[in-house]
């Protein structure tokens, strides 16, 4: 009954407040109000301990791509755990689940990115990229080629490596000093930062910023450029159409490795297996996590092409890097089952040709005319909405407002999870969302915008 549910909620909240330190959270403030207790998930819906049904417009944290409650994935874990719960892949050993997953990933990665290194989180995958590209140049006899270039407002995780590589000021201000030899250039946020420039001019200007930075630090000192195909946690920022081809030209000109952080964009989110496919990027190295297992177990990977892989293979020495759970058999079995399920249900085609375009159109029909909405940008099933103070002048809300949080709280109270990144609202629903569920999602977004303004 309801009283019992409420009592349970209060108990869990009290224990949580006493003992649980939440990530990216003002713990004191949360403890006073109590965390919402999520109890169950099915498809695109969650339930909380008070019995409320919530449409999860964020697929958890951009990860539950195949939706909640997939028994195929639970069974893969159950079977593998009973057969072989754990063994390492450090000491001249392997096992079938990790080998099969590497093959399964290689079947969907772009071009020749067929060599896979395993980690447990996106942050660890990014740390792996940072160490691997620097070690690559060391193997090539150029250890001085160790500068990594990334972008302002990029998110690459929260280990010391990921924090340093990312461009989040709020993170750089805590827990430093950061990892050295990292440089950042401007982000390709056309709507917010291009001034009078057209998208094309702005794309060129951003690529020129990369070239200027390379020339400033010396081309022979740069290991790699790293970027998310579409920035996710930075607010879902879709770069101008010419951006990546221009960036790629600059990387080629100076022989700089190109790394795509596919932690959000990978596994169908943009309507192709990888964001690099959708945006015509030809990276030398990619990171992936989240959608790799649809978030059912922690697992991440880095895929490299022959150029990098062969350098390591031909260099007769250990690569001194890895994690106890690199290629964990249970996580690997679940990830393989997840990819096979995605293939069986043609989910990538569904996002690319059907539900993705439907979602983008329906959302614009629902809210483009709203006084708060300045700009909507997105591809497939990921979208960012810039809220504006003034629709006519396109004046954005400054950092001094909490309009995003107000909107997010209206969503929270009206059965929708939508995330706020400053004054940008972002959505990234499970890829299995139906047309009727998209309709419901868009209606809820409209309602919450109306309540906010
Ligand atoms: N890279 C990108 C692009 C991400 O979006 C994230 C997480 O949101 C990460 C890396 C870090 O992943 P994790 O939180 O699994 O460490």
From TrEMBL:
One of its GO terms (molecular function) is transaminase activity. It comes from Amphritea japonica ATCC BAA-1530. This is Putrescine aminotransferase. Belongs to the class-III pyridoxal-phosphate-dependent aminotransferase family. Pfam families: Aminotran_3. Its EC number is 2.6.1.-. GO terms for cellular component: cytosol. Its cofactor is pyridoxal 5'-phosphate.
